[in-house]
Amino acid sequence: xxxxxxxxxxxxxxxxxxxxxxxxxxxxxxxxxxxxxxxxxxxxxxxxxxxxxxxxxxxxxxxxxxxxxxxxxxxxxxxxxxxxxxxxxxxxxxxxxxxxxxxxxxxxxxxxxxxxxxxxxxxxxxxxxxxxxxxxxxxxxxxxxxxxxxxxxxxxxxxxxxxxxxxxxxxxxxxxxxxxxxxxxxxxxxxxxxxxxxxxxxxxxxxxxxxxxxxxxxxxxxxxxxxxxxxxxxxxxxxxxxxxxxxxxxxxxxxxxxxxxxxxxxxxxxxxxxxxxxxxxxxxxxxxxxxxxxxxxxxxxxxxxxxxxxxxxxxxxxxxxxxxxxxxxxxxxxxxxxxxxxxxxxxxxxxxxxxxxxxxxxxxxxxxxxxxxxxxxxxxxxxxxxxxxxxxxxxxxxxxxxxxxxxxxxxxxxxxxxxxxxxxxxxxxxxxxxxxxxxxxxxxxxxx
Length: 448
Hints:
The chain has helices at 20-26, 31-39, 65-71, 73-76, 89-101, 112-126, 132-151, 161-172, 187-197, 210-219, 232-238, 290-303, 305-356, 361-391, 395-405, 431-434, 439-447; strands spanning 7-14, 46-52, 55-62, 85-87, 179-183, 202-206, 223-227, 241-244, 264-268, 285-288. Helix content is 53%, strand content 12%. By secondary structure, the protein is an alpha/beta fold. The chain is built from 17 helices and 10 strands. Mean pLDDT is 84; it is low at 409-426 and 428-445.
């Protein structure tokens, strides 16, 4: 059975604290592979990996914070401690909501992160990484992201890293009459191509799968063509601007590809990088990285600050709702387990009592009703206490109760279930039921 009462532990390596090199080092081969690796770690029941051009994040559901941190060394073991932010259960949940709302993006409120989170969720679910704990957190985050964009103006203006990159290049040089090369036909490549189509006369789309490149070239509103990756050198010589946004794990360009290309602006928004850092040492090449994009996105941040304040309030409200949802589920799970255990014991004891004496149908119903009443009365106080414990974040009480009442606790042998009480006084039986109970049963209780 999947653990339904573990804690979420998260780690974030993002543009806020990490360099481009550290982002590249922290990233796994793929989100799917990262989730599979995390699930193989001791105690990890659920896992999610979110990897974009400016963040690598991992989340696990583990029996303890320490176990979660140990598993998440997959992302942190090869980078400096100050490049990664480790988050506990509530910090992870709030961060997920903020990420989905666009509050943690380089371009405040950008739309692409919401789709990227959905993709990460689907990939994790496809390999068994999503269970009841992450399910609630991620679906709430996606809902908040949708609300933020439909109810505020958080995504007006420059809404993607790709469009910010094109604006940055356009502010430094005149692109009228020039050609541009876009490498990668995914979502980020599409956004770059659309933005460039407004500033250049010709866009070349290069992609490993040429039909995908052709489809993108046909969809943009300017003269465009498609080429395979093995034609990159010729395309670079023609282009004044190169925007590279592939999902390749290997470098797409060699530095030599830019040596005879003339004045070229290169924007590398891939993670890991498509363009070697050494390309920036060439006199004719200007390389824009994530840090350079901060300048153009600051204008957008100023424009969206008022909307961001509204989104912050939305995140706060929905975060509180999410915590309440978790608390209720946690308490309900333990209460349900407690009642299931009591029902098992009640059934076993009823079977013993009813087999020991000859009761008619009416008498059997009275005895069964009495057993139900006793169980309800005995569990009423613990039920209230568990709900109070959940409201007060007293998870130690919740865990203790789960261990005490879990039917599987202590092994599979349930032939002699534990007693709830050591003795029962017939005086505890409700007055209205006493007259209906056979005297033999009352005598036996009194003797015990």
